[in-house]
Amino acid sequence: MAELKDILYKVHLRSVHGSTNVDVNDLQIDSRMVKPGTCFIAIKGVSVDGHEFINKAIELGAIAVVCEVLPEQLNDDINYIQVANSAEAAGFMANQFFGNVSEQMKVIGVTGTNGKTTIATLLFKLFSGLGYRCGLISTVEYHVGDKVFPSTHTTPDVISLNSLLKQMYDAGCTYVFMECSSHAIHQHRITGIHFTGALFSNITHDHLDYHKTFDEYIKVKKSFFDGLGADAFAISNKDDKRGEVMLQNTKAKKLYYGLKNIADFKGKILENSLTGLQMMVNNDDVHFRLIGEFNAYNLLAVYGAAICLQEDKLKVLQVLSGVTGAEGRFDYLISPKDLILGIVDYAHTPDALENVLATIKKLRRGHEQIITVVGCGGDRDKTKRPVMGEVACELSDRVIFTSDNPRSEDPLEILADMEFGLSSAARRKFISIADRKEAIKTAVSLAKHEDIILVAGKGHEKYQDIKGVKYEFDDKKVLEQMFELLER
Q1: Which regions of the chain are under pLDDT 50?
Q2: How far is CA 458 from CA 4, 97, 124, 391, in A?
Q3: Residue-level pLDDT at 208
Q4: Do 343 and 452 contact (CB within 8 A), yes or no?
Q5: 156 labeled binding residue
Q6: Which residues form the Mur ligase N-terminal catalytic domain (predicted)?
């Protein structure tokens, strides 16, 4: 419980109708969750406008309403707060309502197109290994100390996020590592949270269904760093062509990592194999269990953050050398008989797919075939579909286009988008099989001794979203089943 006037601290008010000297039991942005004593915040979303549900919230017991546009008829028993931006107000209010706990922990945010989950997960595993009680908010799962919960979004909604931070604080967490998606930044879900540090991985073609232009996407990511305080640190990828742009207006301490350019945290890959990476990290020679150049970047970002957080470099490297990556990120298994290497990866952008396939090519010892199973999500950025198709065909020997999460779209139309504009060389390499299980089965049947199969796009996900229904589906389990059939 909190007094309304206290949780409105930092909110830009336009007008108040009623009183702010009232006790609020709960905050909600979903009218269906309102109960007596709730303050309902009406947010205009992408597909739903919360202002349309103000009366519903009042019927369910809301005592206060925060909105950008006041209803035509005001209820004398309700306290109305008109604000400039409801989403921004929700961020500040949720932060205050749950005790402003981000200022009492060290919260590290990770943003970028690819690598967010791995970096956040590695930080969580590293600092847990160093003896700290930590929280993790990622695409795969949420950790509150020893408890693990399935993830709902890359970054939860503003109320759930602040409630989660409060749970972490109450559980004794001193560090929180969280992914900050571009949607979350743009929708003010992380507004009001105090970040001790922030990391940038890279930026490539993604989410243009939402942000419309690549420049807008960059601007949103950059705004996260622009909002950091002078007491924070900001670490960016020096090898990404927009790595320096991200930090150009931040007040935070600027640091960089990289493999190619001069950087504060410099790496060099000495050896890259299925057993892991042998790397120079600044002047130290270390073996890591992760595979691929993209993971070398992730490891450097994590190392940099640990040094900024005043940890001993040798202890950091010692713990980090034994840490494994996030679920569904270059997750591999080998068939017992034919020694076929099966890799499951979340790669769902052209750049991520290119990175994974480039890593696989480097792991080849001879003339093993690379067979890629890949699809594109429905109701998402359509412009990347033909690019994904071209990348898969260019870097693989055989390709099977299939369904990812078609959502409300026709899977065959998505496949047609992936096939559109393919070069004649690419067209000789692919077949399309809409059923994902059949596509994986076909890939296994095509594979010969020691060939490599990549199943890309879904990674850790345990479902397939078709017409609003989430059907149970796990790429790794299906691949295991097909390997078992192969042995019979």
Answers
A1: 207, 211
A2: 43, 36, 22, 17
A3: 53
A4: yes
A5: no
A6: 27-97
pLDDT reported for residue 211: 47
* Among candidate residues 432, 475, 474, the one with its CA nearest the CA of residue 453: 475
Residue in 375, 405, 398, 407 with CA at minimum distance from that of residue 453? 398
Residue 129 marked in a binding site: no
Domain boundaries, the chain: 2-97, 100-322, 331-487
* The one-letter amino acid at 247: L
Which residues make Cβ contacts (< 8 Å) with residue 229, sequence separation at least 6? Answer: 194, 195, 251, 252
One-letter amino acid identity for 342?
G
> Residue 189, annotated ligand binder?
yes
CA angle 345, 120, 175 (to 5 degrees): 155
What is the predicted pLDDT for the residue at 210?
59
Look at residue 401 and give its three-state secondary structure: strand
d(CA 260, CA 254): 18
The answer to whether 327 and 140 are in contact (CB under 8 A) is yes
CA distance 181 to 157: 11
- Flag whether the pTM goes above 0.85: yes
Rg, Å, the chain Cα set: 24
269-277: long-range contacts, CB 8 A cutoff, minimum separation 24 = 269/293, 269/296, 272/359, 272/362, 272/363, 273/363, 274/332, 274/341, 274/363
Q: Would you say 424 is a known binding-site residue?
A: no
Phi, psi of 297 (to 5 degrees): -65, -45
365 carries a ligand binding annotation:
no
In this structure, which topology does domain 331-487 adopt according to CATH? Answer: Protein-Tyrosine Phosphatase; Chain A (3.90.190)
In the block, tokens 């001790």 appear at: 196
> What pLDDT shows up at residue 214?
82
| Cβ within 8 Å of residue 216, ≥6 positions away | none
Do the annotations mark residue 366 as ligand-binding? no
CA 328-127-262 angle, to 5 degrees, is: 80
Residue 461 annotated in ligand binding:
yes
Task: Confirm if 348 and 456 have CB atoms less than 8 A apart.
Answer: yes
Q: Is residue 117 a known part of a binding site?
A: yes
406 is in an annotated binding site: yes
Fold classified for 100-322: UDP-N-acetylmuramoyl-L-alanine:D-glutamate ligase (3.40.1190)
Residue 204 marked in a binding site: no
For residue 131, count CB atoms less than 10 angstroms from its CB and return exposed for 0-12, middle for 13-18, buried for 19 or more.
exposed
Instruction: Judge whether 428 is annotated as a binding position.
Output: no
250 marked ligand binding residue: no
2-97: CATH topology is 3.40.1390
Q: 21, exposed or middle or buried, with CB in 10 Å at 0-12, 13-18, 19+? A: exposed
- Whether residue 191 is annotated as binding a ligand: the answer is no
